[in-house]
Amino acid sequence: METRTGVSKSYRAKSVEEQQDAYDSWATQYEADLCAMGYRILGMIAATFIRHVPPETSPILDAGCGGGIQSEPLKMLGYEEIVGIDLSDGMLEVARSKNIYSELHQATLGETLDFPDNYFGAIISAGTITPKHAPPHSFDELIRVAKTGAPIVFSMRDDALQEPEYPAIISKLEIEEKWEFAFKSSSFHSMPYGEPEITHRIHVYKVR
Ligand SMILES: C[S@@+](CC[C@H](N)C(=O)[O-])C[C@H]1O[C@@H](n2cnc3c(N)ncnc32)[C@H](O)[C@@H]1O
Q: Assuming Cys at both sites, which of 88, 115, 173, 207 could form a disulfide with 145, CB separation 3.0 to 4.6 Å?
């Protein structure tokens, strides 16, 4: 199936460079393909975000923003000053064309981020902290750049092929009192018409 090609390529990437290439070449078609697959993280994460993040919260970090499809509803609902970061210049170019971000930067989750401590009032991350993409320890830097009490709203796979290091980091950070639990959605099929075997949940943790 054609729409699965980009997904497969991104999941086959063996390095950050290969991942960057996969998304650079998929960028202009990515959102059309995801929508054709019935992409549900978009609606689920926006609904969860508006329940947990007051509208005056600023600035907001969109970590792994891609083309920006998950920040479009936030901007339409009145959130201002959304800063997007992503590995792929191609995806950032799509995001830039929408004029919804106050800043867009090329950055790699899992490495040091070029933002001060205690800076963001909330963080959203959709479809990015996931195998072959951003590693589990990406949360360390997201916690550092978030203000105390800031909600981090993120999707995470919970199907049988999820790598155990991802759910493990959630409880590790809770035990270490780096963040506290606020919300977990039920499990849902995130791309039912393209990758029906993949399921996700949306999580919210508040930085301590
Ligand atoms: C599945 S897409 C999700 C994009 C967007 N958030 C969405 O929901 O449509 C994954 C995104 O993560 C980016 N990405 C992959 N690994 C990354 C990393 N280590 N650091 C930053 N971005 C990364 C890719 O370039 C791509 O834009």
A: 115
Domain definitions of the chain by residue range: 41-188+198-207
Q: Which residue has its alpha carbon closest to ligand 1 atom 8?
A: 126
Q: Whole-angstrom Cα distance, residue 31 to residue 21?
A: 17
What DSSP character marks residue 185? P
Indicate yes or no: pTM above 0.85: yes
| CA-CA-CA-CA dihedral for 55, 61, 62, 63, to nearest 10 | -150
Ligand 1, residues at Cβ distance < 6 Å: 19, 23, 34, 41, 64-66, 69-70, 86-88, 91, 108-110, 126-128, 133-134
Mutate to test the pocket of ligand 1, among 28, 85, 86, 139 (most ligand atoms within 8 A of CB): 86
What contacts 164, CB < 8 A, 6 or more positions away? Answer: none
pLDDT by 10s per residue, the chain, length 208: 445 567 767 878 889 999 999 999 999 999 999 999 999 999 999 999 999 999 999 999 999 999 999 999 999 999 999 999 999 999 999 999 999 999 999 999 999 999 999 999 999 999 999 999 999 999 999 999 999 999 999 999 999 999 999 999 999 999 999 999 999 999 999 999 999 999 999 999 999 9
